Every structure is written in structure tokens, then in C-alpha cells.
Automatic annotation (TrEMBL):
The lineage of its organism: Bacteria, Pseudomonadati, Pseudomonadota, Gammaproteobacteria, Lysobacterales. GO terms for biological process: regulation of DNA-templated transcription. It comes from Frateuria aurantia (strain ATCC 33424 / DSM 6220 / KCTC 2777 / LMG 1558 / NBRC 3245 / NCIMB 13370) (Acetobacter aurantius). Residues 133-228 bind DNA. This is Proteobacterial dedicated sortase system response regulator. Gene3D superfamilies: 3.40.50.2300, 6.10.250.690, Winged helix-like DNA-binding domain superfamily/Winged helix DNA-binding domain. The keyword Transferase does not apply. GO terms for molecular function: phosphorelay response regulator activity; transcription cis-regulatory region binding.
Length: 228
């Protein structure tokens, strides 16, 4: 039996097509037609990855509400928006709520499957590091790769899988500038510059909530970002 993947999509035919296709890719895909139905199912046990549409039946923003609720339950559960709504505002809103990826319904099934596989691969890589890489520590920052936990000055910072990977990429070699392209490659994302910027802003916001003086991530204009 493959990994359990939930698809929350209110159009029955579209939902059935995605469930069937992902089952062919080897996943144990399960479809839900509304936010309420999905949350009832997830009360007993969370799936291993959730694919969410934004508009869900009579809830135009139901997918956003579901994302917010799921992220509150788990900082590392992989969440992907798959929606026809692809305005910059919707993309940024989804990422701010903690989604790991945001795809248009024009995305091919093979690309969707590749993005899912990348998220699972990153979880596995972070969950089973070599002993030498088990802990990353630089000043007040501590990253526990086995537990996917980040701490700043002893306080846990609730990062998503994508955010954790980006912080790990930056902090692994402090002072070294990582371009947006390098961050995309390391995080196995295929996004535009604005999406990387949104992730960085969200990461900064989370550290600032713990420490108002946080300034460890520098923007190097025209080049990228570095952990100072």
C-alpha cells in the first residue's frame, strides 16, 4: 500500500479523476468533497500529504480555511494547493497560510506527481540524516533534522517542510549567498522569484514572532539571500 494522500476537491468528476490517477502512481489516494468532510476524516488520523482546492462547494475560501486548520495541527504535513485560481494574491495567500506548493489545474499529472515525490523525498532526507548532519547549530539557531524542528534562542519555530529546507540550505554555510535558483534547486521547487520571496518573508515573520530583533537572513539585492 502506498502513501496515504488526500484530495479535497468539490467537483466529483475531477476528484475521481485525480484519485484514480494518483492510485495508478502508487499512492493510496482518498477524495473528499468539502472542508467539513475532510476534517471529519482527518480527526482520527492525518494523511501523509493533502492536495487542496481553494473553492469548496459553498465555501469560496474553504481551501484556505482547511490549510490553516491543518497547519495548526502539523507544521510538517505536506500541503499542496491545486486550483484554477492562480492570481498572485491567491498564490501568496496560500503560501502565507503555510502551503508547501501551489499549482494550477493546468499542471500535468506527471508534474503534480513529481512535486509530491519531491516533498516526500525531502521529508525522508531530513528525517534520516547522517549522524554528522543530525544537528545543525549556528549561534542561537538549532536545526534537528530527525524531528524537522527548528529552534531560535531555545524557542521552537514552527516551520513547514519547505521553510525548514530553505533555512537548512541557508544556515548550512553561513555567509554564503544562495541565489533564488539555488534555493529552488535545493528545495526542489519549480516556482517564480515572487514565490521564493513569499517563503522568505514567511520564514522571517516566524523568527520575528519569537525574537523581534531577528536579522539573520540578509537579502543580497540582485544575488539572493544569505544566513548572516
Amino acid at each position: 500500500m502506498g502513501r496515504v494522500v488526500a484530495i479535497v476537491e468539490d467537483e466529483p468528476l475531477i476528484r475521481a479523476n485525480y484519485v484514480e490517477a494518483l492510485n495508478r502512481f502508487g499512492y493510496d489516494a482518498r477524495g473528499y468533497g468539502s472542508r467539513r468532510e475532510a476534517m471529519q476524516a482527518f480527526d482520527s488520523r492525518l494523511p501523509e500529504l493533502v492536495i487542496i482546492d481553494i473553492g469548496l462547494g459553498d465555501e469560496p475560501e474553504g481551501g484556505f480555511e482547511l490549510c490553516r486548520a491543518l497547519r495548526a495541527r502539523s507544521a510538517t504535513l505536506p500541503l499542496i494547493f491545486l486550483t484554477a485560481r492562480d492570481s498572485d494574491f491567491d498564490v501568496i495567500s496560500g503560501l502565507r497560510l503555510g502551503a508547501d506548493d501551489y499549482l494550477s489545474k493546468d499542471t500535468s499529472l506527471h508534474q503534480l506527481a513529481a512535486r509530491m515525490a519531491a516533498l516526500f523525498r525531502r521529508l525522508e532526507s531530513l528525517g534520516a540524516p547522517s549522524m554528522a548532519e543530525h544537528l545543525v547549530s549556528h549561534g542561537p539557531l538549532k536545526l534537528d533534522l530527525a524531528r524537522l524542528q527548528a529552534q531560535w534562542q531555545g524557542q521552537e519555530i514552527p516551520l513547514t517542510v519547505t521553510e525548514f529546507w530553505m533555512v537548512h540550505t541557508l544556515a548550512r554555510v553561513p555567509g554564503h549567498v544562495k541565489s533564488r535558483d539555488q534555493l529552488m534547486r535545493d528545495a526542489e521547487l519549480v516556482v517564480d522569484d515572487a514565490t521564493i520571496t513569499s517563503h522568505i518573508k514567511r520564514i522571517r515573520k516566524k523568527f520575528l514572532a519569537s525574537d523581534p530583533g531577528f536579522n539573520a537572513i540578509d537579502t543580497v539585492h540582485g544575488a539572493g539571500y544569505r544566513w548572516s
